[in-house]
Amino acid sequence: MSTEKLTTASGIPYTHHEDSMSAGARGPLLLQDYILHEKLAHFNRERIPERVVHAKGTGAYGTFTVTHDVSKFTRAKIFNAVGKQTRVFLRFSTVGGEKGSADTERDPRGFAIKFYTEDGNWDLVGNNTPIFFIKDPKKFPDFIHTQKRDPRTNTKSPTMMWDFWSLNPESLHQVMFLMSDRGTPYGYRHMHGFGSHTFSMINASNERVYVKFHFRTAQGIKNFTNDEAVKMKGEDPDFAQRDLVRAIDAGNFPKWTMYIQVMDEQQSKTYRFNPFDLTKTWSQKEFPLIEVGTMELNEIPANYFADVEQAAFAPAHVVDGIGYSPDRMLQGRILSYPDAHRHRIGANFEQLPVNRCPYMVNNYQRDGAMALNGNGGSAPNYFPNSFDNIRPDLSYKEPALEMDSNIADWYDRNGPGEDDHYSQPGIFYREVLSAEDKKHLVSNIVGAMSGIEGPKRMEIINRQLCHFFRADIGLGMAIAQGLGVTIDENAMKHS
Asked: For residue 414, what pLDDT is reported?
């Protein structure tokens, strides 16, 4: 194997990588040792800002293959032929922990997919749950603050978490998911993924339907119990990362099947609850899963930082044939996600290899830090102009979206018709969880709520217990008993 010359970042060969230049063998170092300064200065800048949420994660490349024709719903080119393959990059993550936290923590898991399509990159940015804690983006900073660290103690605070959840009954459905064993999945390969939000699909006839995206794991669901997850936190805080890398390196490529649920526009207007509410699921009996294709992960990036840490996903990035919906949380993320990436990795984050569209890109964005694509060369940086032939292609125009109202106001997110926060959590407890799952759920909730401290402790506990009782009397009684809170069962049944 031939040797290669050691060089500076400017390509200049140098000889002393380990020894600094000094005035004599034991004298002070000299300012002219540029290699010393270059190494230390670059080292000081090796870290980019950590993601505010989803900081701890891993990722892999793979392929998405269409297995079923869904052209009656969408004209998106990614789906235009059975057997068609599209390259993807998928990043898994935990939500609340810092980059150095354990990836077996009780937490939702991010499930973000970048599809490199010929009509541009489509980012489907979801979680391993079909729902979320809140349904209005104005509440997101407050919610995340409660999942981070107490401003005085700089420690995680069960008091903050449960205070927020108890004051926001819309969070109950997701709290139930989180506190079940689904909150501690066995790595990333053994969990489902969801687009979570309601999106739209538009077909060749410009007809719109609303859809939910589901990814069902082919590896089978597997979760840690709470005790197992806590034990693994100490044994290997990078368990999920290591599990994915080892599986793919061994040729055991994980797979998921993509499904969609479809609701037409008329159904969305008359449905019994707001179908764009992120705290609700759609009934699979009423809106059955329709198979679309399979996704396989088969390549670990050669360099974690280059591809996983610098990967940037944004729900704003939809391609022709796939669109938005009135989902309020989705509307908020359309703004906040690209803004977060511009702050974290710069205005030209989409020129980085992992984020770059591999097909044609034509626009008039110029300059900014780290412009990597030739910066447009000598071509015009304005539109319209007399020198190029770049024009909007009107065949990509979406049909007009009919508004329900022309009155702008601050609508109560929990107003009439929006305030049933208990039916679906109750169904989840009674009909989805097994007897063993119910036992673990109660134990996990009791353990988590036992950490509530301070003079407001009983006020917070009682407020949250009311939510559990409204979802299911048996659930509320079991949690109250575990917390040592005396409840008049007959009074609760008639409340």
From this structure: 86
CA 437 and chain centroid, separation: 25
Asked whether residue 276 falls in the same domain as residue 198, the answer is yes
Name the band, by pLDDT with cuts 50, 70 and 90, for residue 392: confident
Q: What is the pLDDT of residue 161?
A: 97
116 in a domain, yes or no?
yes
Local structure of residue 319 (DSSP, 8 states): -
Tell me whether residue 157 is in a domain: no
* pLDDT tier at 492, thresholds 50, 70, 90: low
Indicate whether 16 and 108 sit together in one domain: no
pLDDT category at 109 given cuts 50, 70, 90 is very high
Domain count, the chain: 3
CA distance 473 to 232: 34
Q: Residues 327-347: what's their mean pLDDT?
A: 93
Residue 143 inside a domain? The answer is no
CA–CA gap between residue 297 and residue 304 (Å, rounded): 16
Tokens of 408: 């702008």
Copy the structure tokens of residue 224: 């840690």
Q: What residues are paired with 215 via a beta bridge?
A: 193, 258
Q: Is residue 417 part of a domain?
A: no
Please tell me the least confidently modeled range out of 17-26, 304-313, 424-433: 17-26
Contacts by 220-225, CB closer than 8 A, 24 or more apart = 220/190, 221/190, 221/191, 221/192, 222/185, 222/186, 222/187, 222/190, 223/181, 223/182, 223/184, 223/185, 223/186, 223/190, 224/104, 224/181, 224/184, 224/185, 224/186, 225/181, 225/184, 225/440
d(CA 461, CA 301): 46
Q: Which structural domain, as residue segments, surrounds residue 11?
A: 1-46
CA angle in degrees (0–180, nearest 5) for 184-186-187: 105
Enumerate residues 6+ apart whose C-beta is below 8 A from 30. Answer: 21, 22, 23
Domain of residue 23, CATH code = 4.10.91.20
Contacts of 25 (CB under 8 A, 6+ apart): none
Select from 278, 80, 113 the least CA-distant residue to 196: 278
pLDDT for 410 beyond 90: no
Residues marked active site are found at 54, 127
